[in-house]
Write a structure and sequence with these properties.
Length: 423
């Protein structure tokens, strides 16, 4: 086996990105599918976004918008998950467009779809037909509850979105204030988490194809993906038989394991992880209350009674922490050995020196004369060349480039389709 360890990976001889040479047809919209295909694009894949004529990806019409009447407006939601892609418009109900799409399938490695269960089958483009066109094709389908042959359940025909999936998968039941109503996590994790799993599924299917030469259907259910991330709650249920009912007492008790939240002068700080007697003793010394463990040994226990923590421990810490900035509080407790966190706003995250140092901000052309900052794919392949930073495409921007080459259309056919409004 060749020894690659002695090669110096300078900018001149860095490795190509892992998906270089992989072509992906991205027939998706909104968040889950585009989030997945953006990961693939950032890792080097050629991603061709297949959109409806005139309207395109539904996210193009979703607020908030950037721009004004003079420059034009573009959706920030669209910009944030569609960099490094090409855009082609096709009405797949049109016979010529459908033929061009099938030619694209024959010349591609992956087709990604999140239009809902049976959407492509109704166009007579189910996996049985797609695999006839291209036996090496990886067809990745994201649906709410799964749509694979032999793996359909009672909910498989239900439509789904972020909030519905957060509720169904148990996330809303374990989130929120004690004694309050179930509450959603404040971002589209019901979409983005399945997007990550689908990207992994595609890469795994590509590896299988590399070994066997055969493609396959990658069947991803948003419900499955989100349920799988409640691993700690599910494991606890298997051990105890308790569901962790959403009640005040149980929520208070459960919160002691993950961490303690207390107030600083300008926000909140969380203490997570192991709270050993030695660290707790050092903490009480730091906050000027070394007398407390002498009065009650529970001040040195990692998991004391919930009421004792909320009524005695946290107020005692807050006598000290509430007089100091949150970063100072977190820093001093980190020095003692605690795993600390500071609650940050979206504004904090958008201006974070740590994220900047990690290269987690990507600035691209916003297609209307300015720039747009989005978050990078958080995978650092230190031996590879940097990911591209191409602007998200305007609707149909690459019709001629793609359809008159990979799609097999002539310039005259494309002009006729444009006149008909089919592209």
């Amino acid at each position: 086996m060749p020894d690659f360890q002695d090669q110096s990976l300078t900018p001149v001889n860095r490795l190509s990105l892992p998906l270089t040479g992989v072509r992906v047809l991205d027939a998706t919209h909104i968040v889950a599918g585009p989030f997945c295909s953006q990961i693939l694009a950032d890792m080097g894949a050629e991603v061709i976004k297949i959109e409806r004529p005139r309207t395109g990806d539904l996210a193009r019409g979703r607020q908030p918008f950037i721009g004004d009447d003079d420059t034009g407006r573009v959706s920030s939601r669209f910009l944030g998950v569609n960099r490094n892609k090409k855009s082609v418009t096709l009405d797949l109900r049109n016979a010529v467009c459908k033929e061009a799409f099938e030619t694209l399938v024959a010349n591609s490695d992956v087709l990604l779809d999140n239009w809902g269960p049976g959407a492509f089958r109704r166009l007579e483009l189910g996996y049985d037909r797609l695999s006839e066109i291209n036996p090496r094709l990886i067809y990745a389908e994201i649906t709410g509850y799964g749509d694979g042959e032999g793996a359909r359940g009672p909910y498989s025909d239900w439509p789904a979105n972020n909030l519905a999936i957060q509720a169904m998968s148990g996330w809303m039941e374990v989130t929120g204030d004690p004694g309050g109503r179930p509450q959603a996590v404040g971002d589209n994790i019901g979409d983005s988490v399945p997007g990550v799993w689908t990207a992994l599924g595609i890469v795994l299917a590509l590896e299988t194809r590399r070994r066997t030469g055969v493609g396959q259907h990658v069947d991803v259910a948003m419900y499955d993906c989100m349920a799988s991330h409640l691993v700690s709650n599910m494991n606890a249920y298997q051990a105890t038989g308790h569901t962790g009912d959403y009640t005040h007492g149980r929520t208070r008790q459960a919160s002691l394991g993950p961490g303690l939240v207390f107030e600083a002068a300008d926000g909140y700080v969380i203490m997570a992880g192991v709270r050993s007697p030695q660290r707790l003793a050092a903490m009480w010394e730091l906050v000027g209350r070394s007398d407390l463990p002498e009065q009650d040994e529970r001040y040195l226990e990692q998991f004391p009674d919930a009421d004792f923590v909320f009524e005695q421990v946290i107020p005692a810490i807050e006598e000290w922490s509430s007089q100091r900035p949150k970063w100072e509080v977190a820093g001093k407790l980190t020095e003692i050995g605690f795993s600390m966190g500071v609650t940050q706003s979206i504004s904090d995250l958008a201006n974070c020196p740590q994220l900047a140092a990690r290269g987690m901000y990507v600035d691209t052309d916003d297609t209307i004369g300015g720039t747009f900052r989005s978050l990078a794919t958080p995978i650092r392949l230190t031996g590879c060349e940097p990911a591209a930073v191409g602007a998200p495409p305007t609707l149909g921007q690459h019709n001629a480039e793609v359809l008159c080459t990979l799609g097999g259309l002539t310039a005259e056919q494309l002009a006729e389709l444009e006149a008909e409004g089919a592209v």
